[in-house]
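Hi L.,

As promised, histidine kinase:
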Amino acid sequence: MKPSLLIRYFILVLLIIGDSAIMTGNEQVYTELQVKKAEKSLNGLHADINKINTLLNLSDWYQKSYENPTTLEKAFIYAKDALLLSESLHSDIYAGKCYLQLSMLHQLRNNNSMIEVCARKAIDFLNKTNQIDDLGEAWVMVWSAKMRTNAPISERMTPIYKAASIFKRSKNNKRIGDCYKEISELYFARSDFFNSMNALKRAVYYYRAAHLNEKDIYPISLRLSILLEADRKNKDIIKLKNETFAQQNKLKSEAFLRNSMIISLVLLLIILGLLYKSFVFKKKTNLVLETQQNEIHQKNNTLQNLVIEKEWLLREIHHRVKNNLHMVVGLLASQAEFLKNEEAIKAINESQNRIQSMSLIHQKLYQSENLSMLHMPSYIFELTEYLKDSFDTGQSIRFILDIDNFDLPLSHSIPIGLIFNEAITNSIKYAFPNGKTKEIKISLKSDSDKRIVLTIHDNGIGLPKDFDPYNNPSLGIQLMHGLSEDIKGLFTIENDNGTKMILVFSMNEQLINT
């Protein structure tokens, strides 16, 4: 057996001897005559404090003979009767004492759960009174319940420390010493010898302050001496272990340092070899990469030149398309001079406007840096100005423009331009037969769902009552419907204090905001 285990064994033996000595000295003996006399007096007593005291004394007397189940049952009966009487008299003091007595009786019955329940109830009542010693005993019973149920040591510490602090208020040195003795045991159980010795020193101090016989204190003093000696030996053992551990670490460190130096040298040689090999390989790779980079650079220059050439070609195409469209417009104008039929002249003029709307798109494209996207605000503005000049409206019609700042691709710009041309042309020609204030609102907006809404709204006379926007022989209406379908848009025309045309379409690609 190891020395530390022997020391702990002797300490536990001394603890048992000390507890037995102290408990034996505190026992009181009651005679059977006293018990019989008190039981006979119960019937003649009034339901007051005296009767409660008698019931508690009888319960206490029968508690001392707990080896006999019959007498222990009587102890329970008298304690419960005392509790009922205390509650009827609304006495916090005696209700607390009764619950404390019941807690002790449950301990004799090994009813561990009820020990703490009754003790907690006793604490609740006694906290309202000045019965400090009984309150301390109630906390001792909570500690006892924790001990009997093998609760964690931290849970056992709390109630016994609480009991010690309460006994200090009543200066009950004997019970303070008992509490610190038990606290010492708890520290000892988790091998905290330092705090165990300090608690035991306090127990001896309070026992002597309570004037206990030295023969009763001797086992605890002896235990304290053994703990001090054990602590000293433990410190010596720990010191020796630390020295041994330090020596072993030193030897290991030296061996590790020696092995590390050898390994480091080997690794250094390997690294140097790898570095040299890497240098040779890198040199060869750099030559290959340099050659490839020169080839890529030449190809990039060639591709860049091709891109520039294609941009110029595309710009030239847009320019020539614009010129050709202008030539067509000129030819139509020349042809119109020789026509006598008003319908033919009207048709040629409408065709001129349509061609001009497409021509303006090609003009804007070859003048811009981006050859595939059209800046809508400037295009709508210039097309509006062209139509105003074409119909010679002057200041007679007020145009209100609300255009978001974004670009659209050529695939959408031409259909929108033609639809815009048809709608504005119809408003100028047919919406204002009288002299009222003439106004055309033009809106082109985009929203967060990538939808674009073109709205053209005049305040003219509106559509005829028999007008059918979906089955109309007019070329302009059919053209607007067809162009809307080309861009998968929704085209509607309705009366709303004038004629209101709405075109809604979506863009699959991201709009370019400028």
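Residues 354 and 421 are 7 Å apart (CA to CA).

Thanks again for sending the construct details.

K.
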